[in-house]
Amino acid sequence: MLRLLTAGESHGRALVGIIEGVPSNMELSAGYIDRQLFRRQQGYGRGGRMKIETDKVEILTGVRHGKTLGSPISLVIWNRDFENWEDKMAVEAVLKEIEKVVIARPGHADLVGKYKYFFDDIRNVIERASARETAMRVALSAVARKLLSDLGIKIGSHVFSIGTASYKDRDSIDSVLLGILGRKNGAEGVSDEADKSEVRCLDENVASKMVQQIKRAKKSGDTLGGVVEVYVTGLPIGLGSYVEFDRKIDGQLAQAMMSIQAIKGVEIGEGFENAGKFGSEVHDEILLRNRKIVRLTNRAGGLEGGVTNGQPLWIRAAMKPISTLMKPLRSVDLSKMKPAEARRERSDFCAVPAAGVVAENVVAPVLANAVLEKFGGDSMGELKQRFAQEAFFG
Ligand code: EPS
User: Fold this and answer.
1) Which tens digit of pLDDT belongs to each residue from 36-78?
2) Ligand 1 mean position, distance from CA 46 (Å)
3) 3, 154, 271, 381: which could form a disulfide with 267 (CB 3.0–4.6 Å)?
4) Cα angle value 40/41/47 (rounded, 5°)
């Protein structure tokens, strides 16, 4: 089974990570991981930091001559911005006076972090709570994504809405998605198309409305959230299980998505929309065609009973607007216990396009774990052989 661990402060020297449990003999290069890191850094609405960082991973252990060894794989991403923060983020004590952050931003981890860890400087909280952490999470997840990709399991995402800029109805986007998902590249084709847009949106008109909204938010010192959708194709029937709560794969996927910074809602398919409909309008009928079971709809989002059902997996996630505002909200100076405006910090205005890339990557370890649990194997050859012989797609 896969185990992942990340470490690193946003403006510290580096982000580091370990992934353990990857079978041997899987081809893996830094370039494969870097492609996901590059995609995560794109998108209209990012702030100044992304001009400083060009994230590249170094593989330190677990890979030899381009193939995994079955041993723990450790990665490092150096923070380029660290050179501007050497004193502020020094490991050793520094003699200089370092200004403390004492005003908490509403919606951020600032206030709770200060009280939980007993800090007099909110900088200690900001540094780890920052979404910079997702760079390493994506890097580690990309390793699991490679494992899935080698088995033909493809992942993709697109941005469904930013602020109120959204598709008018589901049908207009579903017909486009259905076409893409049916092609050779499966769900990865969704990302290939979405990546052509600066907001990762599949429809030009909706995309330009999204850009307009972000521009307006930026002008007024505000921020915006949105909804992203992740798809996975090539999944066999039977990943996850209904027999015990913690083996339900929808629960595991929700945890992976919900733990991305600023994600506040997760649904499988259109979970919330379906709650207001009749059962007859929601469930996907089971039909026979040429003695084969077929489903004409996928409202369940590829999961029934916490188990993959052979249909494309479809997960939606809602991101709240970023909590660092240039037009700050009211807060409190905790050193003086007096009202104050929240701190203005360099920040993104909208990171929804990047969140989609993070989301599509973080589902990979969950699914790779389920694949390893069901099919097993210490080497990629073994896993591939078992998958080819035993995977049932319906
Ligand atoms: C972030 C604030 C900004 C973002 C950062 C997340 O960083 P800074 O405060 O250094 O300008 O750029 O995102 C990343 C660094 C990244 O790699 O995604 C925050 O407050 O969470």
Assistant:
1) 999 999 999 998 889 899 999 999 999 999 999 999 999 999 9
2) 9
3) 271
4) 135
For strand 3-7 and strand 63-64, is the pairing parallel, antiparallel, or unpaired?
Answer: unpaired
In our burial notation (b when 16+ CB lie closer than 10 A, e otherwise), range 257-295 reads: beebbbbebbbbbbbeebeeeeeeebebeeeeeeeeeeb
- What's the CA gap between 394 and 392, in Å, rounded? 6
Distance 349 CA to ligand 1 centre (A): 11
CA atoms within 13 A on the CB side of 113: 20
pLDDT digits (tens, 9 = 90+) for 239-254: 999 999 999 999 999 9
Q: Which long-range contacts (CB under 8 A, 24 or more apart) does 171-178 make?
A: 172/203, 173/202, 173/203, 176/202, 176/203, 177/202, 177/231
User: What per-residue confidence (pLDDT) applies to 345?
Assistant: 80
Q: Average of pLDDT values for 146-159?
A: 98
Beta-strand pair 330-333/338-341: antiparallel
* β-bridge mates for residue 338, sequence order: 333
The helix (run of H) or strand (run of E) holding residue 249 is helix 249-258
**What residues are in contact with ligand 1 under a 6 Å CB criterion?**
10, 47, 49-50, 53, 130-132, 134-135, 324, 345-348
Neighbours of 137 (CB within 10 A): 23
* Distance between Cα 344 and ligand 1 center (Å): 13
**Which atom of ligand 1 is found nearest the CA of 55?**
17
Location of structure tokens 């007024």: 220
353-364: buried (b, 16+ CB within 10 Å) or exposed (e) per residue?
A: bbbbbbbbbbbb
Whole-number Å distance, alpha carbon 31 to ligand 1 midpoint, is 23
Hey, how many other C-beta atoms are within 10 angstroms of the C-beta on 118?
8
Query: How many Å lie between the centroid of ligand 1 and the Cα of residue 25?
Result: 35
Of 254, 234, 251, 236, the C-alpha closest to 373 is 236
Contacts of 20 (CB under 8 A, 6+ apart): 2, 3, 4, 72, 73
Q: Which amino acid, residue 257?
A: M
The dihedrals phi and psi of 233, each to the nearest 5 degrees, come to: -115, 160
Q: Whose CA is nearest to atom 12 of ligand 1?
A: 49
- Mean pLDDT to the nearest integer, 360-378: 97
What is the pTM assigned to this prediction? 0.97
